[in-house]
């Protein structure tokens, strides 16, 4: 346990300057600081609750050449995160209580952030038979979020049964919304003028929004909860607005890359920009930003998807989908959304809302005495040209390389322990 530390003068998530005393892993009344307390002058910095990533691919077990729980969570701490939800598309898949316990144990051993395993919806992500949802939920790992991410739960009847099942224990199904018949096996970018010109097979926005429309109806039918992963289209936003107006229990996330990058980046055939769902035209980006600002989209999630060189360095159609994002997420959100959201809004979309969606107790809390000391200190004016090689991740598929972006994270504390310091 760290000795007591007093952080002085930081703007507390936009509420104005104040002091934070960290003692025994929690925030405590600054008036109780012992005389020999260690001091951190944070004047000019902003304090946010530790960030929570609903959507991280840590690749362990199975693809430790691309990422490990150790390296991925070290990258998360550098990005200001104190909790990450580890996606189930590992090898073996996280589709049993034992597999979930293994991922959680790897997280505890690494000690950089809380690691909460996401359970698969279907055995082996095969989309045919429900996984052991109840056993995973009742196990010590306490799985609450279930997802076949990387694959869509395409079978409506199976999706209905999954939603019915998780309702009993307050779980949620996080859907990778992609109709496999509309986004065929060769689809590798947004379907439009650019895909036509480049001769690449695209997929239309309808491949996403039609699944979301179906799933919100199933959530209503089952009175259960659905979460939409990585929303990428204006049409999906329209469906979400309709569903929320109707009182359906749906939440949604958007990635940093879909808030800033656009489909024209694929014209160089650089697989770094190949991601699922694909980068879209600027009109979609505008709508995604508006939806995040007005709360139609609840949260930002990274979809950090590290890939080894030998999986990424191929001709565009053959390369793996995905990009890293843990270390740049907050910077991209500040660049694109700070004016619209303010600091309290940034704290909500990157910490409070994701913690609520995932049902996490000690995360996304106010910076007040008695709460676990999960915190990120942010320099609101620091910027830097992103260098893909300067990373705790094992992978280098970084779409931000060479771009000048906010570089805000100064220090991260998880349960009172400093997990990153610039
Ligand atoms: N986002 C991606 O492009 N890839 C993800 C899978 C996913 O999130 O669908 C991966 O596991 O690599
Ligand atoms: Zn996905
Ligand atoms: Zn993903």
TrEMBL record:
Binding sites annotated in the UniProt record for Zn(2+) 2: 149, 176, 230
Binding positions for Zn(2+) 1 per the UniProt entry: 55, 57, 149, 303
SUPFAM superfamilies: Composite domain of metallo-dependent hydrolases, Metallo-dependent hydrolases
Pathway where this protein functions: Pyrimidine metabolism; UMP biosynthesis via de novo pathway; (S)-dihydroorotate from bicarbonate: step 3/3
Active-site annotation: 303
Task performed by this protein: Catalyzes the reversible cyclization of carbamoyl aspartate to dihydroorotate.
Protein's UniProt name: Dihydroorotase
């Amino acid at each position: 346990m760290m000795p007591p530390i007093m952080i002085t003068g930081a703007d507390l998530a936009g509420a104005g300057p104040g002091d934070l005393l960290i003692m025994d892993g929690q925030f405590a009344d600054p008036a109780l600081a012992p005389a020999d307390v260690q001091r951190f002058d944070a004047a000019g910095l902003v304090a946010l609750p530790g960030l929570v990533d609903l959507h991280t691919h840590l690749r362990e077990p199975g693809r430790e050449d691309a990422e490990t729980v150790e390296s991925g969570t070290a990258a998360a701490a550098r990005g200001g995160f104190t909790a990450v939800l580890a996606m189930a598309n590992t090898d073996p898949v996280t589709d049993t209580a034992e597999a979930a316990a293994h991922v959680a144990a790897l997280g505890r051993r690494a000690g950089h952030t809380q690691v909460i395993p996401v359970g698969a919806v279907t055995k082996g992500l095969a989309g045919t038979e429900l996984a052991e949802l109840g056993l995973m939920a009742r196990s010590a790992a306490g799985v609450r979020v279930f997802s076949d991410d990387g694959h869509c739960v395409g079978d409506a009847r199976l999706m209905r049964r999954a939603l019915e099942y998780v309702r009993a224990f307050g779980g949620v199904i996080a859907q990778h919304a992609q109709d496999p018949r509309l986004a065929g096996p060769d689809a590798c970018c947004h379907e439009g003028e650019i895909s036509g010109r480049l001769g690449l097979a695209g997929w239309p926005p309808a491949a996403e929004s039609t699944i979301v429309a179906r799933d919100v109806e199933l959530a209503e039918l089952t009175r259960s909860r659905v979460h939409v992963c990585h929303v990428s289209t204006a049409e999906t936003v329209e469906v979400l607005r309709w569903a929320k107006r109707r009182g359906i229990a749906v939440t949604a996330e958007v990635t940093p890359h879909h808030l800033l990058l656009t489909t024209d980046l694929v014209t160089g055939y650089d697989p770094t920009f190949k991601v699922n769902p694909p980068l879209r035209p600027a009109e979609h980006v505008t709508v995604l930003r508006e939806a995040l600002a007005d709360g139609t989209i609840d949260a930002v999630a990274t979809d950090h998807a590290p890939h080894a060189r030998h999986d990424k360095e191929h001709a565009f159609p053959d390369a793996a989908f995905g990009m890293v994002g843990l270390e740049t997420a907050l910077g991209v959100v500040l660049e694109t959304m700070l004016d619209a959201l303010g600091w309290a809004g940034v704290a909500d979309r990157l910490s409070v809302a994701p913690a609520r969606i995932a049902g996490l107790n000690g995360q996304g809390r106010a910076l007040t005495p008695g709460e676990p000391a999960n915190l990120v200190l942010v320099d609101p004016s620091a910027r830097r040209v992103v260098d893909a090689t300067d990373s705790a991740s094992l992978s280098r598929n970084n779409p931000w390389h060479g771009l000048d972006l906010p570089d805000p994270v100064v220090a991260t504390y998880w349960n009172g322990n400093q997990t990153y310091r610039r």
